[in-house]
Amino acid sequence: MAHKRITVFVLSGFLGSGKTTLLTKAIDHFTEAGRKPAVIMNEIGEVNLDGQLVAEEVPMSELLGGCICCSSRGDLAAALKELVTNEQPDLIFIESTGIANPIEIIDEVTDASLVFPVELKAVITVVDAPQLLELSRTSRGKTYRLMEEQIRCANLLLLNKTDLLPQSALQEVDALVREWNPYASVHFTVFSQIDMQLIEALTEGDAGQHARAEVKITHEHESHKHHHDHEHTHARHHHHTHSHVMAYTHFFERAVDSNAFEEFVSKLPKEVYRAKGILSFSDTASRFLFQFAYREMDFVKITPQGEVPDVAVFIGENFSKEAVRSALLRLESANE
Ligand SMILES: Nc1nc2c(ncn2[C@@H]2O[C@H](COP(=O)(O)OP(=O)(O)OP(=O)(O)O)[C@@H](O)[C@H]2O)c(=O)[nH]1
Q1: Which among 60, 93, 170, 191 is the best mutation to test ligand 1's pocket, defined by most ligand atoms within 8 Å of the CB?
Q2: pLDDT tens, 198-219?
Q3: Fold for domain 244-334?
Q4: Which of 10, 14, 17, 21 is the pocket-test mutation for ligand 1 (most atoms within 8 Å of CB)?
């Protein structure tokens, strides 16, 4: 084939595992190396907060308010087409939502590659190692199964947040993921810090091959599992996995007290497993990017790009949006 194909990487991993942390590092690396990266960012919430962390000059396409793996087929292909046509990047990172099953995305990118000059080179999955370990020892519910799928599809696996695990636990997580995926290269990381040569190396071969084989295997497995389904539409089986996940987006009318907000977050019901936002506090001068992932809370000073409202997104399973909303309204009115 005469023309060069644009490398596509899919960044997968559960909510809050460290995908954006990796994305910003990878973008810096490729930009410094004289290559032009572009991003397709998918968010369950209605606002793209992670996009705030990516330099303004990086072309970005946003798919908001839902998970690409569930939204109408074609959205992702349209975003790829637009970036390829308008920006001619050297590589494209697709950051999926933390609840996405990467198989659907792999499928859509490989379909798109029949029509546009793009090539899926690798699926990179970032694993919240402490969370995976705890789930493996306790509940093993839907989240655990989704993490398993995300791990199975990967060519490169980052076992992240190892700073939060004792040395003795590392081997246990390592053994678990290698059992699910003996093909991927596996790396322990802190703040998704990885040797970028490993990602460079993925731009060489056709790493998508493993992913495609995995798609086939999983589809076969899934169709067997859902054999009795009446609504058995092509490759949409996994909807069952996260139809229960929901997001509430709160736009603040006024600044809230930082301590009261922190206390509110620490008391969120356990069904809310991810939250993030951009906030102005009544008792601080700066604005903050706030993160809450698997019980860890983090506030970073930020000067948002463009006009960004004070907003927070809460993601979880079957929680009362109304309860979250009224608690936040109370915080706001306490500051009237
Ligand atoms: N302690 C610790 N925190 C980390 C590490 N990596 C990332 N974090 C923090 O975890 C939070 C979530 O990180 P992100 O990179 O935004 O995670 P994500 O996977 O992009 O999240 P979603 O897009 O919501 O799915 C942030 O507060 C990070 O600073 C790590 O290795 N150790």
Answers
A1: 191
A2: 999 988 765 444 444 444 434 4
A3: Hypothetical Protein Yjia; Chain: A;domain 2 (3.30.1220)
A4: 21
Please name which of 54, 56, 214, 21 lies closest in space to residue 123, comparing C-alpha atoms. Answer: 214
For 272-323, the three-class secondary structure string (H helix, E strand, C coil) is EEEEEEEEEECCCCCEEEEEEECCEEEEEEECCCCCCCCEEEEEEECCCHHH
Domain ranges of the chain: 6-222, 244-334
CATH for 6-222 is 3.40.50.300
pLDDT tens for each residue of 21-60: 999 999 999 999 999 999 998 877 777 777 778 888 899 9
Work out the widest C-alpha separation in the chain, in whole angstroms.
65
Between residues 38 and 318, the one the model is more confident about: 38
What ipTM describes this predicted complex?
A: 0.98
- The pTM assigned to this predicted structure is 0.79
